[in-house]
Amino acid sequence: MDRVWARFVLILIALALVSLIAWPIAGPLVAMTVFATGLFAVVVVQSRHISLLRRWLRDPAPDKVPQGWGIWDRVFADLYRMLRRQHRSESRLSATLEDFRQAGAAMPDGMVILDAQDRIEWCNPVAERHFGLDRQRDTGQSIAYLVRQPQFVEYLQAQNYGDLLVLRQSRGSDFILSVQLVPYGDRQKLVISRDITDLERVETMRRDFIANVSHELRTPLTVLGGFLETILDLKAADSELLRRSLPLMMDQTQRMRRLVEDLLTLSRLESTHNPPREEPVNVPGLAREIYHDALAFSGGRHRVALDLAAGDWLTASEEELRSAFGNLISNAVRYTPEGGEVTIAWQRRGPEAAFSVRDTGIGIASQHLPRLTERFYRVDRSRSRETGGTGLGLAIVKHVLNRHQARLEIASEPGRGSTFSAVFPAERLLAPPERVPVALSA
């Protein structure tokens, strides 16, 4: 028997013994009075402790456990220990739940926990952005009432857990999600969403690239094939026809060669196994060389100016810089009408430096600017082909600058010309080996 209970029983036995002893000495009335008084005192003590217990149960806090006497001291002590264990267990559960919430909030994918009736129990911030939810407001609401897209509701009801749903959202711009439903627990579900907008855009670009490069190669091949068939059908070679057709075939051949060369250049720039061979590059000297190339390319049809306001060199690949700068200048000359002006500049912008090409050409509408560096993207397809461009020049520029931690800035206005600037970070800049007088213009 527990010692506490044994002590309680001993108290009752002691009262009985005292009463029995008092019975022959003081008479039965006194003996019964002594026993009743002792028993009443025990009942009062027990009632007092029961009252303390009931009062504590209304607000059971470990620091408010009452002090007891006798058996109640052991009861209250056990309650205190039990409550402390419960609080420690709750603290561990709360910490685990908080860790789960923090991990869920840090995940790049959206997560929504649904109960058996598809009501929201919890969601992370990414899911709030994906589905337009508010965790505080929407907890307990059916997700089918909040995500009102028929294909999502059908997917939720079908419960095809092995399938993925591609969901297109409309919030000012295309917003594409990959959604998967995962069952777990007691009929609960986890909705996992992933933003695949960029992946879809890349896939679209891939399809456009294949279609465009096929079209670009088909045109010169059609021209060559047509002329060759005509010549083969002639019984005797027509010298006049040859004089007209051979230059055209040569032009188309050169166009196809430039296209293939640009594709190979892009492939080389995109390769992770082909890092740039970096060396100190005399950018003012390179700019002068490209300036003379621009004069020859223009053939006197434009005013070409050179403005070297900075003498800084760069740590870079000279071959790649020449390719990027040459593409910027050739584009400016192609899209500037005869009599227009093209200005080549190398200048400081605070801690950075920029190689800029400014023209007074046809300009570009603002909606086209974000896509200019895509392969084969053309603002005006017919004009681009007339000028002899491959549609890959700005894509090459973008990749070269990315390999040099630089960026391309474009400012343009239709009818007023464009400015393309390759901006290089301060850590790429080098002081020239020796002080050489820098011409401010040429």
Question: Can you put this structure into words, describing what you see?
Answer:
It is a single chain. This protein is of the alpha+beta class. The chain has 4 domains: 3-95; 107-195, Beta-Lactamase (2-Layer Sandwich), CATH 3.30.450.20; 201-270, Orthogonal Bundle (Helix Hairpins), CATH 1.10.287.130; 279-430, Histidine kinase-like ATPase, C-terminal domain (Heat Shock Protein 90). The protein is built from 13 helices and 13 strands. It has helices at 3-26, 28-57, 71-106, 125-131, 135-138, 143-146, 150-158, 197-233, 239-270, 283-298, 318-334, 381-387, 393-403, and strands spanning 110-114, 120-123, 164-170, 174-184, 188-195, 279-281, 303-308, 313-316, 341-349, 352-359, 407-413, 417-424, 429-430. β3 (164-170) and β4 form a beta hairpin. α1 (3-26) packs antiparallel against α2, α8 packs antiparallel against α9 and α9 runs parallel beside α13 (393-403).
